[in-house]
Amino acid sequence: MSKRPVSSSILISASCHNQVELLKAQEVGCDFVYLSPVLSPISHSASTHLGWDRSADLVNRSELPIYGLGGMTASDISTACSVGLHGISMVSELWNSKDPAYTVGEIEKKLLAFHV
Question: Which of 10, 13, 33, 100 is the most exposed place for a label (fewest CB within 10 A)?
């Protein structure tokens, strides 16, 4: 793909794992990207992850908003924001929760406390 496949009135994103993919997403006109895996996700625990330092480096090299995927929990919110991620996915935390509604409430409290 060498150009944006849809009108600019429709948001598009890409899943990226390295600098080459981030540059391609930018080249084709993505509005934002998902970077993964930042940490080791529960579904792929044996796979190599980027880690915080490499994620920060990729964020600093990109002009696009980047959302982190892979192995993160609410306790990672402040670190994720400090490395420049625009947000994170916490699928594993919700998936493993005995009370997802409570967990969402706790995540919301942490987000609000961080952004005050």
Answer: 10
Q: Is residue 5 part of a domain?
A: no
Total-model pTM: 0.85
Dist CA 63 CA 70 (whole Å): 21
**Which pLDDT tens digit goes with each residue over 21-73?**
999 999 999 999 999 999 987 766 666 899 999 999 999 999 999 999 998 98
Query: Is residue 90 domain-resident?
Result: yes
Provide CB contacts within 8 A for 107, sequence distance 6+: 74, 77, 90, 93
Which CATH number does the domain housing residue 109 bear?
3.20.20.70
Q: Is residue 85 part of a domain?
A: yes
